[in-house]
From TrEMBL:
Keywords for the protein's UniProt record, in alphabetical order: Glycoprotein, Leucine-rich repeat, Membrane, Repeat, Signal, Transmembrane, Transmembrane helix
TM helices/strands, residue ranges: 884-906, 913-930
Family of this protein: Belongs to the RLP family.
Biological source species: Camellia sinensis var. sinensis (China tea)
Membrane topology label: Single-pass membrane protein
Main location: membrane
Compartment(s): Membrane
Annotated GO biological process: defense response; post-embryonic development; response to other organism
GO cellular component: membrane
Phylogenetic classification of the source organism: Eukaryota, Viridiplantae, Streptophyta, Embryophyta, Tracheophyta
Protein name in UniProt: Leucine-rich repeat-containing N-terminal plant-type domain-containing protein
Length: 942
């Protein structure tokens, strides 16, 4: 042990420092790694005896407060000190480590560094103490830095200040550090234009990172004085200017240039870089490509390895491809996405034999999908989604790109069969052929030859056949989308789906039979979408074992029976069981589903009352129970649902009054309704320092996703969708629009009583429908507070009195109906939205007058007479004597019935014809009723 030179105790969760005081016996120890343990400041004195130590790693060991480096004065040979990921707010005594070459203070809480005499600010301490050595202050988010004391930094070579907070004056003084080679100032909260002096004097600077700040304006002309610069990152700022006249054209030593996410004009000709013979990486995403006439052909002196120009807003790029690209033969990554390229550049694949990533997303590509004539084993990712490519997928694609990792051809016009050669792509993990015109069946070779397939999407095609092929070989498959095709047949009764599956979508097909019970054993399932098929039978109780399930949509099938009482997983967020033939009461289904956001049980045969436990679903935002046979009063427990924004109880048998406590529900819009945050992010990353040799800043900071940045997919690629009736029509709300929808529909029930005045407090709702009930009393004037309302339907009730004149303040109202009530007086003034409503909004109210009705208020009886008449009519039950009407109707009915019986008794021919007619009508109506109204009968017959 006395001769031990390296000791690594990292990642052990050690808390006790007992025994570390005996480290002095390790007289030859040069490297000690204690990172990611549970020490604290008490460990520091035990380390001071290690005079031979050269490297000390104390990353993430809960150091906090002020650290006195002077305690390490015996470590005169220390060259590397890592104090990152702690809670240090100040450091002093750096001068004692005269040989220090690397100091890492990332992810701390530094407020200032104090020298031994306490006279200098943060960077004056570091700079005066570590000449000729690198200093790293990355992620010291609270470090306050000034530019004083720079005179002592003339030999400093590497300075890392990323994610700090420094004063802009630093850039005016840093030029005195003439030996500086690496300067990284990423995300240091600087803004404004770059100064034209004070920093351009760094003639030895090789790497400069100014990314993720708020710099704007033109690049200063002094930038061309950085004659040694190799790596320059200006991304994520607000710089402007045309690169043709920029000082960048004189930086001939550039190897790496990132200008992404600025407002530069980049000439398509690339003439600004014609003499940059060392340029290897150019990133210019989210700028603007300017089409420029090339008066003479020029041959570039550079050979790029990475070219990324996505989303540069060129509408004319399709006229002619950048000429310099015809001379590039060493490209590894190409991303020209979101530009109007038009012609598929197969020659790029032909010329660049070591190409790895090829992205042409949304480039208006037309014509066929072409492949190079030779085999390219280096290509790992191809994404040509969102184009107009047509024709078949080349049958030899698997042999041309055998090592493809990611293939996306979605949203094109590709037709034909899925080539069997896809099974030759042994390393394929992501395959997205969705939204095309593919036909035929899924080739078996695909599932056999691609054992690492993770994401498999064939949605929105014309594929057919049975889903009977075995996916069991795909042991890593997690996402399977076969929706919106023409697959038919029964779902396999045996387990042919891998247990690793997290999302299954077979919606909008022609599947039938019963839901398989074995799905309950797939414990990894997060999302299931099987809607719009022909499944029948009960929901298997085995579904109750899906402990990770968050999304379930089996709507629009023929499922029957009751909802299993055990189906109450706490993980479920969205449950769509609507448009089936489910029956019985709700019992305890969803009783413990505390995460439930959407519950759609509409259009079934459910009965009974709404259970009281409904109030425990505190995050419930959408509750749809329409078109069932629920009865009883609307429970006051609904008022406990503070997140509720859409409530639909229409077309049931609810009775009693509208609960007064509805005013306690804010009915606010929320993103939780459409959010399906149940996916993961899968990405293919490329370390850019692999393309630029000897880089320090890229190695430490610039590990990024190039070309397509992130391959993102959710565990269920289905938008949350609900149907809600508003504005006299049923609409399907999905995506972001659903977030902004809120409403209450209590129509077509047997509700009684007056409309509570407190309903006017629901200021966030956009739809309120109380039609087809037995509500009476006046329309609350508080409805004028419904400032967001777009549809208000109070028709077919027994409301009386006048229409409140304050309603004309509802400026967003598009649909308004008070038809078929007992309202009286004048219609509201024809102002604002009320000038758009037609007669149908007011019809069926004999005592209403004014435009748009035909009745003129000036010709009607006086108001007092009208009021008395109206009161008398209400008391008497209407305009006629109802008792006399009932007696006369009954007598007339009996006389007519006896007359028909007498005629049929006397004339046998008429009697035979009558019975034959009745028999034919009964048979015809029976089959018509059976074929078309079974579901309606189910709802109304119970």
């Amino acid at each position: 042990m006395n001769n031990l030179e390296k000791l690594d105790l990292s990642y052990n969760s050690i808390e006790d420092i007992k025994g570390f005081e005996r480290l002095y016996v390790l007289g030859k120890l040069e490297l000690l790694d204690l990172s990611y343990n549970s020490f604290n400041n008490g460990i520091v004195p035990s380390l001071c005896v290690l005079s031979s130590l050269k490297t000390l790693n104390l990353r993430g060991i809960n150091l906090n407060g002020s650290i006195d480096i002077g305690e390490f004065h015996n470590m005169s040979n220390l060259e590397e000190l890592d104090l990152s990921e702690n809670h240090i707010d100040s450091i002093k005594g750096l001068k004692s480590l005269s040989k220090l070459k690397m100091l890492n203070l990332r992810w701390n809480e530094l407020k200032g560094l104090v020298t031994s005499n306490g006279r200098y600010g943060c960077y004056s301490t570091v700079m005066t103490a570590t000449a000729d050595t690198p200093v790293n202050l990355n992620h010291t988010a609270k470090a306050a830095v000034t530019g004083g004391g720079l005179d002592g930094l003339k030999h400093l070579q590497e300075l890392y200040l990323d994610h700090s907070s420094i004063d802009k004056i630093f850039l005016h003084n840093v030029g005195v550090m003439s030996s500086l080679r690496v300067l990284t100032l990423r995300n240091i909260s600087l803004n404004g234009s770059l100064p034209n002096q004070g920093w351009c004097e760094l003639s030895n600077l090789q790497e400069l990172d100014l990314s993720e700040n708020g710099f704007n304006g033109m690049l200063p002309s002094c930038l061309e004085d950085l004659t040694s610069i190799r790596i320059l990152d200006l991304s994520f700022n607000q710089f402007i200017g045309n690169l043709t006249s920029s000082s960048l054209s004189n930086l001939l030593t550039l190897e790496f240039l990132s200008l992404s996410y600025n407002h530069f004009e980049i000439p398509v000709s690339f003439i600004s870089f014609c003499n940059h013979s060392k340029l290897k990486v150019f990133l210019g995403d989210n700028n603007r490509l300017s089409d420029q006439i090339e008066f003479q052909t020029w041959i570039p002196k550079f050979q790029l390895k990475v070219l990324s120009l996505s989303n540069c807003g060129s509408n004319n790029l399709g006229m002619k491809f950048p000429h310099f690209l015809f001379y590039q033969y060493d490209l590894r990554i190409v991303d020209l996405s979101h530009n109007s390229v038009r012609t598929f550049p197969v020659w790029l694949l032909e010329n660049n034999t070591r190409l790895e990533v090829f992205d042409l997303i949304n480039c208006s590509l037309i014509g066929p999908f072409l492949l190079p004539s030779y085999r390219n084993p280096h290509v790992s990712s191809i994404d040509i989604s969102d184009n107009l490519l047509e024709g078949p997928i080349p049958t030899n694609i698997g042999s041309i790109f055998p090592n493809l990792w990611n293939l996306k051809t979605s949203r094109n016009l590709i037709q034909g069969h899925i080539p069997t050669s896809l099974g030759d792509m042994h390393f394929l993990e992501i395959l997205d052929l969705s939204n095309n015109n593919l036909s035929g069946q899924i080739p078996k070779d695909l599932t056999i030859g691609c054992p690492y397939l993770l994401f498999f999407k064939l949605s929105n095609n014309n594929l057919s056949g049975q889903i009977s092929l075995s996916f069991v070989n795909l042991t890593t498959l997690r996402y399977l989308y076969l929706d919106n095709n023409h697959f038919a047949g029964k779902f396999p009764y045996s387990v042919s789906i891998p247990p690793s599956l997290e999302a299954l979508d077979i919606s909008n097909n022609h599947m039938y039979g019963k839901l398989p019970r074995w799905m309950g054993n797939m414990s990894s399932l997060i999302g299931i979408a099987m809607f719009s098929n022909h499944f029948e039978g009960p929901i298997p109780v085995e579904f109750c074992k899906l402990s990770n399930l968050q999304f379930l949509d089996v709507s629009d099938n023929n499922l029957s029976g009751s909802v299993p009482s055990c189906f109450n997983q706490s993980t479920v967020k969205h449950a769509h069981l609507n448009q089936n033939q489910l029956s019985g009461p709700m019992t305890h289904a969803f009783y413990n589903s505390s995460s439930l956001v959407t519950l759609d049980l509409s259009d079934n045969c459910l009965n009974g009352t709404i259970p009281n436990w409904i109030g425990s679903l505190h995050v419930l935002s959408i509750l749809l129970l329409k078109f069932n046979n629920f009865e009883g009063e609307i429970p006051v427990q609904l008022c406990q649902l503070k997140q509720l924004s859409i409530l639909d109880l229409s077309e049931n048998n609810f009775s009693g009054p509208i609960p007064l406590c509805f005013r306690e529900i804010p009915f606010e819009t929320t993103h939780e309704k459409s959010s399906l945050e149940i996916g993961i992010q899968q990405s293919l990353t490329f370390s850019l320092w692999n393309f630029v040799e000897g880089s320090k800043s890229l190695e430490d900071h610039y590990l990024m996703d190039i070309a397509y940045e992130n391959i993102i997919f959710h565990s269920l690629d289905v938008q949350q969708k609900v149907e809600f009736t508003t504005k006299h029509g049923s609409y399907a709300y999905k995506g972001n629009i659903l977030d902004y929808m809120s409403g209450v529909d209590l129509s077509c029930n047997h509700l009684t009583g007056e409309i509570p005045l407190e309903m006017g407090n629901l200021s966030n709702i956009r739809d309120l429908n109380l039609s087809h009930n037995n509500l009476f009393g006046s329309i609350p004037s508080t409805f004028s507070q419904l400032k967001q309302i777009e549809s208000l339907d109070l028709s077919y009730n027994r409301l009386n009195g006048k229409i409140p004149s304050q309603l004309i303040e509802l400026n967003k109202l598009e649909v308004f109906s008070v038809a078929y009530n007992n309202l009286s007086g004048a219609t509201p003034d024809q102002k604002a939205q009320f000038a758009t409503f037609e007669e149908s909004s007011y019809e069926g109210n004999p005592l209403l007058c004014g435009f748009p009705l035909q009745t003129n208020c000036n010709k009607t009886v006086p108001t007092s007479t009208m009021s008395k008449g109206l009161d008398r009519e209400i008391e008497d039950g209407g305009f006629i004597d109802m008792e006399v009407f009932y007696v006369s109707f009954l007598v007339s009915y009996i006389i007519v019935l006896l007359g028909i019986v007498a005629v049929l008794f006397i004339n046998p021919h008429w009697r035979q014809a009558w019975f034959h007619l009745v028999e034919m009508c009964m048979t015809s109506w029976y089959y018509f009723f059976l074929d078309n109204f079974m579901k309606f009968f189910c709802n109304r017959s119970m």
